[in-house]
Amino acid sequence: xxxxxxxxxxxxxxxxxxxxxxxxxxxxxxxxxxxxxxxxxxxxxxxxxxxxxxxxxxxxxxxxxxxxxxxxxxxxxxxxxxxxxxxxxxxxxxxxxxxxxxxxxxxxxxxxxxxxxxxxxxxxxxxxxxxxxxxxxxxxxxxxxxxxxxxxxxxxxxxxxxxxxxxxxxxxxxxxxxxxxxxxxxxxxxxxxxxxxxxxxxxxxxxxxxxxxxxxxxxxxxxxxxxxxxxxxxxxxxxxxxxxxxxxxxxxxxxxxxxxxxxxxxxxxxxxxxxxxxxxxxxxxxxxxxxxxxxxxxxxxxxxxxxxxxxxxxxxxxxxxxxxxxxxxxxxxxxxxxxxxxxxxxxxxxxxxxxxxxxxxxxxxxxxxxxxxxxxxxxxxxxxxxxxxxxxxxxxxxxxxxxxxxxxxxxxxxxxxxxxxxxxxxxxxxxxxxxxxxxxxxxxxxxxxxxxxxxxxxxxxxxxxxxxxxxxxxxxxxxxxxxxxxxxxxxxxxxxxxxxxxxxxxxxxxxxxxxxxxxxxxxxxxxxxxxxxxxxxxxxxxxxxxxxxxxxxxxxxxxxxxxxxxxxxxxxxxxx
Length: 576
Ligand code: LR7
Ligand code: MN
Prior knowledge:
GO terms for molecular function: carbohydrate binding; metal ion binding; polypeptide N-acetylgalactosaminyltransferase activity. By secondary structure, this protein is of the alpha+beta class. It is globular and about 80 Å long. It contains 16 helices and 26 strands. Strands 15, 16, 17, 18, 19, 20, 21 and 26 form an 8-stranded antiparallel sheet that branches. Bound molecules: ligand LR7 and manganese (II) ion. Residues 144-146, 148, 177, 208-209, 212, 229-230, 258, 313-316, 336-338, 340-341, 365, 371, 373 line the site of ligand LR7.
């Protein structure tokens, strides 16, 4: 069939290189990567093995330098691979399959060398001789995967091998979390025969990434563990600045800056070292990014110096193995995905460590818009993990998360050993953590009112409803039948008159009523709520928040005490 000949399936990836040469006889030498995005030409007609323009190239198999082989190279220097719009039906099918199986463009990845080059715009500060200690400890790099694309997994591995000082890598431990993609079975062993540092560990059943990471740690022999997701690319000099921090202080947990590898073109976007972000979280216990607070900026002379971060994203970090064990590693009751990053972040800070983002260290990661793999049926895994996290580490503040999930905790398993651990380690309180490490976070208990905000007009069944995602900032805030499940209908009225959803605020600048990052200076984000009249009068416009008769749009009108459609009822109002 045409498809199989056009593009070798992953099962063939360990085939001998002769096949590769036969398919692409050398012709005209090495092609240079143009500065503009590469347009991959589609193959016309049948699966003829012509070479040159118009031929859709075959995926790379790695282990060889494609450029030296005279093959056309794609995505070098982190450039994007852009597929043409007019793909043949057969190719389109392959592209679609790649997206479906991975939630990124596997087809584009397969065209890129496993050893592709990346830009290195590190700050000069990072490269100063003597910046890092001479005797850095070795590390075991642990990469867990469940059904990762071959080219993406192997590019992760080669970027580690190609861009780390050899003597610092004790081993790369690949933990297969019970994948069923055929290329991840025997081919991986065969491939790694040429790379003695690669060790393969396989789970006998699906463990989820948390227990898979713990499996990896058990096999690790180096004093430092470095975890990476299975779709990463390490840049030049990524490792030394991480190990240096741990060598100087073993209780420092370090994260690289996470650059973005585009899910569609595999373009590598370097994040400016001068403008790093630090990690936070909201009361749904979702991780988020923030600018470096002023107080933290003042601690530094140079923006490339490591910065303290309240939380980590989770997938990319290095930690002293003994310190990790002292902290009780991860809660092995966490299943599949999620929450473990906050668990490790909270206890690092609360139990005597420091969490840093190291701007001199850059690693790319493919950010996906959905999870491509199966989770578990019949249980909300993330919620269960988050409840374990809240129960063990968040003290009284756990209630703010529970409010968000309708106070329905369900069965979250046994957590006594994790509570014992916290007691044994004599860790500080969550209150201490919030006050000292994450003072920027808005505490719902400081709100004057919270919960649903119900409109009393038109049958009083309509509630203020938020656009669901972060990316919906700037979009109009909405209306929806009240559902009493919190979520997008959970709002907080702050002491200074903001109507907040965590870090976003209801904002009116004369057009639509939108959600906008809270700025704390009133103006367009100031709402005066009169508990008796139930009006929400806006600061700068002096108008009142109201709704249209079809109950699907927020409006701003002249205030009128007689109109139920201008009346709003907060679910919880703390009149003090
Ligand atoms: O059952 C599973 N078994 C696994 O081995 C599910 C996943 N995995 C592997 C998977 O193949 C991948 O290598 O675990 C890794 C993480 O899974 P992803 O890539 O689907 O997760 P993510 O990148 O969307 O999620 C982020 O949050 C997770 C919460 O549990 C983990 O901490 C991820 O490591 C983390 N990724 C990052 O921090 C990269 C930057 C993302 C941001 C912000
Ligand atoms: Mn990931």
